[in-house]
Amino acid sequence: MSRVPGWLGRIGAGLTELGERLDERRAEVELESRGPADGADGLDGAAPLDAPGTHAKTPGPSGTPDGPASDADASALPVQRPSEEQTPALAYAPQPHRPDPALAVPWGVRVAAEASWRLLILAGTVWVLMRVISAVQLVVLAFVAALLITALLQPTVARLTRHRVPRGLATALTAILGFVIMGLIGWFVVWQVQENIDNLSNQIQDGIDELRKWLLKGPFHVTDKQINKIAKNLREAIGANTDQITSAGLQGVTVIVEALTGILLTMFSTLFLLYDGKRIWEWSLKLVPAAARTGVAGAGPRAWRTLTAYVRGTVIVAMIDAIFIGLGLYILKVPMAVPLAVFIFLGAFIPLVGAVISGALAVVVALVTQGVFVCVMTLVVVLAVQQIEGHILQPFILGRAVRVHPLAVVLSVAAGGMIAGIGGAVVAVPLVAVTNTVVVYLRSYAGEAGLRHTPEPRGATAVDASPAHRPTS
Description:
74% of the residues lie in helices and 0% in strands. The chain contains 13 helices and no strands. It has helices at residues 4-32, 71-76, 101-104, 107-135, 137-162, 167-217, 224-240, 242-285, 290-331, 337-347, 353-370, 372-397, 406-453. The longest helix is centred in the middle third of the chain and has 51 residues, at 167-217.
């Protein structure tokens, strides 16, 4: 009987040991049921408990926890395996890695998409702006003309104010003098045309008769029948379009009213810009967002200097063209040499196109009034002056500050003419020159601001910023 308590004690110890092993096995099954994301190895990179060559740490015979268990004891223990209901197959299946959809798109496609939607927004903004300008075209052209006149007259106001003349008086004197000079030029042109219109019509009729005789006897072998047919076609065309010509004449009244309105708007705008231009610019800066205000404030004076240089240079070049071509026409005894010179002066404000049209008009007048020889000599004079102007005067007077590529000049003049007619063609080139100055300055300003405010990342190397390390799909 004395052995019974010892036997019962050994049974209790065995049951306790069996319960501990069951708890360890349950923990092992739970670890395996977490899936391959936790790794094929055991916890913290250790080998699985049932892997070959490893043995579970079990209490030794003396009751120490790290004693190795015997093979008999390990085989005698029941092993609990998870059932299919407890551990579904998806728990053990490897889950596929799905990248971010944005990273799956190729780099070039992503860049093209980012640029495309921004370009669409810009195109929509430009379209809306063009629609607004078309709706208030007269006001816009009057204001732009006032800017050009102000750029021409503002140095005079600044010079008078430096001599202690009150700004209001300096503005009034400069504006009155400028508008009086422009009015006198216009009046002189109209007066010359009215004085010579009768004589010119007779000379044109005589020139047409001489041109007809030259065509009949010249190298082109034109017959009298062909000339009469051309004249008949012209008369028929004029008769068929009589209604359109009449309606154009009626619309001319509306054009005259709009022109007078535009002149008044230009005069008032010029006065206010000359007198209060600085405060108007400071008020305009308040409409710009604060983050971009510093850059725009620096671009404004540079744009104004570009516009002033363009207007001054264009006026000087136009005066030289008008004086020398006018002298040539006067020497060749072409009728209305002075009005044609004024027309050449005004045409110089439309680069390339204006010079061609004004020169062609002078050549045609010389042809129909003085004959073929005078016409050829007039053409020589016009081409010589324009070549000197294009290759010497413009680069020397205008300089590099307002130099625009000829292709940009042609495209801008064509676009301005289609949008706003003659006025659009006049303001197209200075607008392109000013825009180029502003864009170049803002680009350099943004680069300098980025270098000032962007700290160099710690530990960054030249390899990290190279294009080869950009994100790829």
